[in-house]
Every structure is written in C-alpha cells, then in structure tokens.
Write a structure and sequence with these properties.
six-stranded mixed β-sheet, 19 helices, 20% strand
C-alpha cells in the first residue's frame, strides 16, 4: 500500500534529542538554533534525510518550525496544525505556538540578549526568511551565525541517506510541449525580465522545464536537483543532479537540450557566474540564502523576483487540461465505488479510518493507472475529523460510529493528472448543528464554483465568497480556501491560490482547489473539496470587461444527507442538482450494477 500507519514518533525521544542539540550548540558557541520544516529545495514534503523538525520534535505536519534556545524552545504551526502539534509533541520540551498569534521571529527577538550568537543553516532558509531572522537578531543586538554544517545532522546518528529515485521522461504527448520549447520560452521570458540567468531550486519547476519526473519524495514525482537557465539561446541550461538517478535513455534525452553536472559542481558554476557580470534572477521566496551568499563578492548583479517557471507551468495547456479531465473521470469512478462500499459497510460497524484508506487506495490501484497517492490520505471520523491535516496511525485509528461525520481528503497521481478531493460523509443521523455547519460549508463551496470575476482578480478577492455563510453564523475556518495543483507534479502548486492574503491573479488554465470547511474541536470536521479549472475570459452582453469563471473537474457525489435544504437558495439547489446530473452521466457507464444503483440514489435531485 502507499500509506503507512505506524506510530510516527517516540515522544520520549524529544527530551534526549533536545538535550543533545543544546550540547552541540554550546560546543559551537551558539545560544540557539532555528529548525525549519524544509530542505535545500524548500519542498513541502521532504525526503527522510531532511525530516529534521520531525526527528527533533515528533511533529509530522507539512509546515512549521522550531526555535531552540539554551533554556527554552517553541514550535510554531499555522491553524491547520494547532490540534495535531499538541497531540504529537512533548509540550514540556517545546511550547506550541500559532503563527497567527505570534511569529517565530517575534518570539525569538523578545528572548535574545545583546551579544548572543544564534545559529541557522543558510541552505534551509530562503533569502526572505533569512532576512526576517537577521532582522529579529539585529533588533536584539544579537548576531545571526550561518552554520557551515547543520548541528542536527551532527547528532542524528541514524540519519537516512539522500534518495536516489530513478528519473523518467515525461513525454510531450502528456506534457503538451517539448522541453526544447519550454527552454526557449524561458529564455524569452528572461529577456523580458532583463535577466541573463535564473537559478532554479524548486524540483517541480525543474521537472516541468525538462519534462522529467522522479521518485525522490513520497507522493510527489520530482527529482531533487538544481538548475541554471540562461537568456542566451546558445547557452543550454545546466542541470545539477546525481548521475546515479539517470538511465542511459534519460541521460541522452536530457543531454540533447541541457548540460548535466553533479550537484557537487554547483559551487563552481556559481563562482563562474559571478565572474562574468550577469544579472542573475533569484526568487527570494523559494531560493535559499546560500545561493545569494555564493554569488556575493563578485561582478554578478542579483535580481529578486518570482521563479518564472512557476507561473508558466501553472497555466496548463490543452493537452494537460484534457489529461486532468481524464484523470478526474478515472478518479471519480474509484471514489464512487469507495463511497458506495462505505455506505454498505460502515453501518455494520466493521469500518475504521485505516480500513477506509486501504479500500480507497486499492480501488484507485485497480485502475491500472495509479502511480502514487498525491499525499497521505486524511481519514478522520468524529473528533479526528476536526484535525485539519490529521494523519491516521494505528494508535489514533477510530471506528466509524453511528451519528457521526467522517471526513476523507485524498488524491492520486496519474501520468495525465493529479487529483485532490474531500468529502464529508454522514454515518447515521447527523445532528442539527452538523447539518447547519455542513450546509454553510456547501454554500461557500457553491459560491466559489459559480463565481464569475474580471481578469486580474486574485484569490484574496474570492476568498470571502467561501466564508460568508459561515461568518453569518459567527464561525470560520483557519486555512486557505484553495491551492494550485500541478500536472502529475505537486498537489500544492504556486503561485496562485484562494486565501485571505494572496496577490497573484488567477489566469486561464490554472487548476485550483475549492475547499471551504468547518472544524469543531473534539467533535467533528467538515470539508467539501473539488478541483476547478480557471476558464478563458468570456464577453458578457452589455458588460464592460471580460470575465473568467471556473469549470469543476472533480466528479464525485456530495453527500446530501447532512444538508439542511431550507438554508439553500433556489440557485444553489439548481447548481447541486446540475453537478450531480453531470457526475451521474459521467460515472454511470463505468460502474457495476450495485454501484450504479447507489450512484442513482446519491445523485438524486435535491428538493428545496
């Protein structure tokens, strides 16, 4: 199976490891150290060798950091993980903090003294985050010290080796564009930006540019690597990757349009760059400070700005869009079969969170097209559903009980597309409060799905659409409403998203999630998520500006049993019925008789 359910940490190890880290820091003359959840590529999901935050604290979430001082330590998470962090971390060792209340930089600044030497690993901090850390230390008259080697690595005696997953080619028949064409477009873009070169450190940007995929990170098909691309047409880009990952065919194909180097040669290449007076573009949000340091002291001029590949790959071409539609149809059939199975088996009392995950993964595997799941499935019933990014283990596993809500958030990696879908299912009879909150979440979901908006609109402008019905009841959810999704790449893709703070405009071809939710701590969680495609602008009769809209890609029934119809408008009911009619038409030909009968019932028209 693709997902593991073992206990994820030894809580007692936290005290020993924290003590060992403090001893290591004392030996280096440091008062403390910053431990981010990241690697040299700023990945969200990490190879085992880079799971330093998890190893030290036991926290397994995909975002967070710890600040360790000689006499105290704290771990910082966002609203998705406030419950999870307390369940996983020894709070006597690490005080849990919500970054919405206090940032790690604010916390650190108040606890440093003049003359203190505070350490960090410059390969794990972006230019932007290192700047914040430097400002915090400077405000306290303390010194920020760049560590040549990471002190955690010095005490992590059984640290896994870096991954060597094989690199495979992603053909133009799936990518919709050759690597040569992408490289040429990137060169032209650098010309528009007046940059001579760009440093690429995001594995998904590199995988997209060279039409390759990898196996270095669980659930995300990218190879860990770095690249330098140039403005000049006669200078091929340089790919820095462990040659052991490349087979003969893959190496030959890449070599046709790029020069291949070992990662150890990266420093030499940067030294060469800074001696030739180029303008080198660095993304301060994604490139580590180490690169800026290596380029300093020479003739190179650094241009800060977004990685241009991120915007280019976020705008899917027609081949990728058609692939996404095919992937969602395939995935929808698996989800319908799963939900039909769940409705038959859960009332009998034999289904728990792990059994549900295993069943869904098996059904996806039966397609013969599944490469991996796109993230660890969130399978939470009752109070576990209230943990936004809950990860079921054998210790936390719960049986699906009557009169509860069950939340399952899952996704798949197929060669033609990446999926991500959440459904909340009533097991037995939901309470009136559950029905109220579920319906308000659904209203928000429909508001986003049906939005029409001018060209140039950002996700921040759409975010209130998803929250209004919840706000009217005095409640909210503490996570974004939507994130970008890649094409057989990362399930969380920039640069656009739907969130309270977001400045990037939505553009045609982008695939975004639509996932409002509600979570009652210790009781239940609700989330309804579909993926939507930003569609090309259309002219409206009498309108002054062309408008964009969304096409819903996900084809999975939305449970109607927790709906309070009296809270829905006529238009909202019409949308739900039209959506279900489309789901029924698309999925029915691919289902057996029993599952087709279930689908007919699950997608029956809702009456107001």
């Amino acid at each position: 199976m693709f997902q593991k359910f073992d206990a994820i940490a030894d809580p007692a190890a936290g005290t020993r490891r924290l003590k060992a880290l403090r001893e290591e820091l004392r030996g280096r003359g440091l008062i403390g150290f910053f431990v981010p959840h990241t690697d040299e590529h700023q990945n969200e999901y990490l190879p085992a060798c880079a799971e330093r935050l998890f190893w030290l604290t036991g926290f397994s979430g995909s975002a967070g950091c710890a600040v360790v001082l000689a006499d105290r330590a704290a771990i910082f998470v966002d609203g998705r993980y406030t419950l999870q962090v307390r369940a996983q971390v020894d709070t006597d060792c690490f005080a849990p903090k919500n970054v919405g209340d206090e940032t790690p930089y604010e916390w650190l600044q108040r606890r440093l003294s003049a003359g203190d030497r505070f350490g960090y690993d410059p390969k794990l901090h972006t230019v932007e985050s290192a700047g914040k850390l430097e400002a915090a230390c400077g405000a306290a008259d303390a010194s920020l010290v760049a560590c040549e080697t990471n002190p955690i690595d010095a005490i992590w005696t059984d640290r896994p080796a870096p991954p060597l997953g094989p690199v495979v080619l992603h053909p133009s028949s799936l990518a919709g564009e050759s690597a040569e064409s992408k490289i040429s477009r990137l060169s032209n873009r650098l010309g528009e930006l007046r940059a001579d070169a760009v440093i690429l450190t995001r594995p998904d940007s590199i995988a997209w540019l060279f039409n390759i995929r990898g196996h270095d990170i669980a659930h995300t098909p990218v190879p860990l690597s770095f690249a330098i691309a140039f403005r000049a047409d006669d200078r091929p880009p340089r790919l820095f990757i462990d040659g052991r990952k490349l087979g003969n065919e893959t190496r030959s194909e890449i070599s046709a349009h790029a020069d291949i180097f070992e990662p150890a040669e990266l420093g030499t290449a940067l030294a060469e760059l800074k001696g030739n007076e180029p303008v080198v573009r660095l993304d301060p949000v994604t490139v580590s400070q180490w690169f800026e340091h290596e380029l300093s002291g020479g003739a190179a001029r650094i241009q800060h700005g977004p990685d241009p590949c991120m915007a280019m790959k976020s705008r899917k071409n027609e081949v990728e869009i058609n692939g996404a539609r095919a992937a969602h149809l395939r995935d929808g059939v698996s989800l319908a079969r799963f939900l039909a199975w769940l409705d038959r088996e859960a009332p009998l009392g034999g289904v728990d969170e792990i059994k549900a995950v295993e069943r869904l993964e098996a059904l996806r595997a039966e397609t013969g097209k599944l490469k991996d799941i796109s993230f660890d499935t969130i399978s939470g019933t009752g109070p576990n559903g209230a943990v936004v990014h809950y990860r079921v283990t054998r210790a936390s596993n719960r049986r699906l009980e009557p009169d509860t809500l069950y939340l399952i958030d899952s996704g798949a990696q197929y060669e033609d597309g990446t999926t991500d879908v959440t459904r909340t299912v009533a097991i037995g009879r939901p309470s009136d409060e559950m029905r109220d909150r579920y319906t308000r979440v659904l209203k928000g979901h429909i508001a986003v799905a049906t939005a029409r908006f001018p060209v140039g609109t950002t996700g921040t402008q759409l975010d209130p659409f998803a929250r209004r019905a919840l706000w009217e009841a005095g409640v909210d959810y503490d996570h974004g409403t939507g994130h970008g999704v890649g094409s057989f790449l990362s399930v969380h893709e920039g640069p656009a998203r739907i969130a309270k703070v977001q400045t990037v405009a939505l553009e045609p071809g982008m695939i975004i999630s639509n996932e409002p939710g509600y979570y009652k701590s210790g009781a239940y969680g609700i989330r309804i998520e579909n993926l939507v495609l930003v569609r090309s602008a259309v002219e409206v009769e009498g309108g002054e500006r062309p408008l964009l809209s969304f096409e819903t890609l996900t084809l999975v029934p939305i449970d109607q049993r927790p709906i309070a119809p009296e809270l829905l408008t006529v238009e909202e009911i019409q949308w739900l019925n039209a959506y279900h009619a489309g789901v029924r038409e698309a999925l029915s030909p691919h289902l057996g008789a029993d599952d087709r009968a279930w689908l007919e019932q699950a997608t029956r028209p809702l009456k107001g």
